[in-house]
Amino acid sequence: MSQPLVHCEDPTTIRREILSRVLETAEADLALFYRLANVEGELCLTDWAAAGDLDTAERMMRPWDGRPWPSVPMMQPAEPQRRATSAFLESRALWTEHELETSRPWQTLVVANGLEDQTRLLVYQGEALVGWIGALRSAGGPRFGRADRARLAPLVAEVRDALIAAESLAHPQESAFLVVDPEGAVDHATPSAMPWLASEAFREQLRRYVRACDREEAPRRGAIWHADATLTRLDGPGRVRYLVSVAPAPLPKRRAQSLLSPAEREVVQLASAGATTAEIARHVGRTHDTVKTHLRSAYRKLGVASRLELARAIRD
């Protein structure tokens, strides 16, 4: 019997074991997890981990560290397909061949790295996207199908819980300031920077980002690991230093409407606009009781208790 996925307090170990389990169960060549965060209006890659073909994972992911993630049919954080958050789904259960073949990011990220197919799960905690986890197979191999989905199905709840647990352990919660040299070596730091510096991933990305900024190859604001970072150049006698401010970068969120079924969404839009239950029933061609059932379901899913709260939830 395999051990539970959450049996320690190290997020790296938790994610590594999750990925190993997904890799084996999916009979894949590569298992991958990645995390995005909002930095200055862009969704940036702030963390990733892999199992299996690590060389391919490095080629695929490393160039995007801290950079805006390309829009690719791997993920639509604000409007995820409802079934994509409750099961591992293969590419061709989500998109057409034409959509995949004409997606330049898909071709650049996946096909150009010798991969051809994926099965994946989007993990949310409430409205916040914790991350994408999936398995990929090399070109020329068998494609994922129903049998793979059936094998992965028992893992879904445990994988979701484990990734949420890892997220809660993975990054500091406080803002901090550091003074670094042009190579990214830390001269001074506030006490709140210590949890950030405890992460090897943060230290490595800090060095690479500061060097790029010093060469004017990167903007002075961007993502460093899980942080929204801003660099300020400090000129002094005979030397240059950078003041680096870091703050936790917020996770992307899905829109409230994505939680609703198409019928619920139609009813909620009309209710938010001020229509009465009777008016909604006439407009959508449903009974009064059916409309009330849809509204009750929407209230529960959105965590609201009145039409005013409903309108606010939809607007936000």
Word description of this protein:
The protein has helices at 11-26, 54-61, 97-101, 104-109, 146-152, 156-170, 194-197, 200-214, 262-272, 277-284, 288-302, 307-315; strands spanning 30-39, 42-52, 89-90, 115-125, 128-138, 176-180, 186-189, 221-224, 227-236, 239-248. Helix 9 (262-272) crosses helix 11. It folds into 3 domains: 11-170, Beta-Lactamase; 176-248, no CATH class; 256-315, Orthogonal Bundle (Arc Repressor Mutant, subunit A), CATH 1.10.10. The longest helix has 16 residues, at 11-26. With 316 residues, the chain is an alpha+beta fold. 38% of the residues lie in helices and 25% in strands. A hairpin with a 5-residue loop joins strand 6 and strand 7.
| Helical proportion, percent range | 25-40%
Total DSSP E strands:
10
Assigned CATH class of the largest domain: Alpha Beta
Number of helices: 12
